[in-house]
Design a protein that fits this description.
mainly alpha
């Protein structure tokens, strides 16, 4: 295969530009993730401070120990629900960022595999007689590796989605159970008065 220095430099330049674009897109995605997580943390902190102030004011107004205990029990379920909502939002932002970065990596891998296939096709045109079988075998191996990678990626996505759904269900069941328990305890305290 004969390649002029100009062709080699043009190929190198195109590849370098593609990698710079990939790094730029990945940086943009990461910055966006940091912005979303910062906003989430600020809003969550503000909400916690507001809830703490409201609880402190309500606790100062209470004169009966049972009413204070009921007030404190009443804060458990909302705190769990807010914690669950925060964790879910955090996971959502992280998953979205991971998906974007994975798409970028897959696109880069796809471009690289295409360039390997093109190079193998060019090699196939210029190989000595009889060695075209080896080049075809290499091309088939590259295509099979690409297919296996895509299959593995799909499997990982499916397992991740199933695990997230199970975690969401378990957390919702836990919040429900704690809510019922605290409600029952608060009712018991009030009836004991």
């Amino acid at each position: 295969m004969t390649a002029s220095p100009e062709k080699i430099l043009a190929t190198f330049k195109t590849t370098a530009e593609a990698r710079v674009n990939d790094v730029s897109a990945a940086s943009d995605s990461l910055l966006s993730t940091v912005e979303h997580l910062t906003a989430l943390n600020l809003n969550t902190t503000r909400s916690i401070l507001d809830d703490t102030i409201a609880l402190s004011q309500a606790a100062l107004a209470v004169r009966d120990p049972r009413a204070l205990a009921a007030l404190q029990l009443g804060t458990i379920t909302p705190a769990l629900q807010k914690g669950f909502a925060y964790a879910k939002a955090f996971t959502s932002v992280a998953s979205q960022s991971q998906a974007e970065l994975l798409k970028l990596a897959e696109a880069g891998m796809s471009q690289w595999l295409q360039s390997v296939i093109v190079a193998l096709e060019g090699l196939n045109r210029n190989v000595p007689v009889g060695s075209d079988l080896a080049v075809r075998a290499l091309k088939t191996a590259v295509v099979n590796a690409s297919s296996a990678y895509e299959g593995a990626t799909q499997l990982v996505k499916q397992v991740s989605e199933a695990a997230q759904a199970n975690v969401d269900q378990a957390a919702a069941a836990t919040v429900d159970a704690v809510s019922k328990g605290t409600t029952a305890t608060a009712t018991l305290l009030k009836s004991a008065a």
